[in-house]
Design goal:
The protein has 253 residues and is an alpha/beta fold. The protein has one domain (9-189, 220-245): NAD(P)-binding Rossmann-like Domain (Rossmann fold, 3-Layer(aba) Sandwich). The protein is 47% helix and 15% strand. The chain has 8 helices and 7 strands, in the order βαβαβαβαβαβαααβ. It has helices at 18-29, 41-53, 68-82, 106-134, 155-175, 193-201, 205-212, 221-232, and strands at residues 9-13, 33-38, 58-62, 87-90, 137-142, 180-187, 243-246. The chain has a 7-stranded parallel beta sheet, with helices on both faces. Helix 2 links the parallel strand 2 and strand 3 (58-62). Helix 3 (68-82) packs parallel to helix 4. It is globular, with a radius of gyration of 17 Å. The chain starts with 8 loop residues before the first strand and ends in a 7-residue tail after the last strand. The model has no long low-confidence stretch (mean pLDDT 96).
């Protein structure tokens, strides 16, 4: 049976773990060749090994999304390897430190904005020309529920994710007529390695987070990955400039 993404190529930044890894698997399961891009080379190569073992095509590229030359090289490598780029999931990001605005360390602010916002900008800057040359494509940017509301003690993270949504909407308007769709995903608390590390230091954290979610549970990486696949599919072909909130009902309250 033909899979919907056969003969398509996807790149996933931050693809070595968490939501990025789940998305890499999801795109591969739909038949796409998947480029896993991450600073974590061991975990990234393991993700590729598992994809290849499943019968799909995949390569790993070690890149730092804050480094323009790394991102340019990534797109050059993708074009050399596959000649095209149909889907880009710009997912790489960090949470930063927990501190109120007046106490937020300036170095931490710069690092979070560099990875979460400038990293997305640089990826889009070099993904879009390749998509333009081939006549279209789909870009998914990782935002957060913190991109649509305040998130106390996470000023840099919240600012970066608001920025991702603004950048997403702007690019969607700029390139709609060129056949490029650009959307953002806005998950709330999701069971990722990042969250698991926080739970290890705060044993009651998961229970407290669940009480904030009307559905009473955390999201899963696979649910977020499924949304990315949908937005890239023909079923999502009339959607662009949208920030899809996946929060278990938090923003409905």
């Amino acid at each position: 049976m033909t899979k919907q993404f056969e003969r398509k190529v996807a790149v996933v930044t931050g693809g070595a773990s968490g939501i990025g890894q789940a998305a890499a698997f999801a795109f591969a399961n739909e038949g796409a060749a998947v480029v896993v891009a991450d600073v974590a080379d061991v975990a990234g190569k393991e993700t590729v090994r598992r994809i290849v073992q499943s019968g799909a095509n995949s390569i790993f590229l070690e890149i730092d999304v804050t480094n323009a030359s790394h991102v340019k090289t990534m797109l050059r490598e993708i074009e050399m390897a596959y000649g095209q780029l149909d889907f880009a999931f710009n997912n790489a990001g960090i949470d930063g430190v927990r501190a109120s605005t007046a106490e937020y360390p300036e170095e931490a602010w710069t690092k979070v904005l560099d990875i979460n916002l400038t990293g997305v900008f640089l990826c889009m800057k070099y993904e879009i020309p390749l998509m333009l040359r081939q006549g279209g494509g789909v870009i998914i940017n990782m935002a957060s529920v913190a991109g649509v509301t305040g998130f106390p003690a996470h000023g840099a993270y919240t600012a970066s994710k608001h920025g991702v949504i603004g950048l997403t909407k702007t690019a969607a308007l700029e390139y709609a007529k060129a056949g490029i769709r650009v959307n953002a995903l806005c998950p709330a608390y999701t069971r990722t390695p990042m969250l698991e590390r926080m739970v290890q230091t705060q044993p009651d954290l998961e229970a407290r987070l669940r009480t904030r979610v009307p559905l009473g549970r955390l999201g899963t990486p696979e649910e977020i990955a499924a949304a990315a696949v949908y937005l890239c599919s023909e079923a999502g072909s009339f959607i662009t400039g949208h920030a899809l909130v996946m929060d278990g009902g938090i923003m409905a309250e």
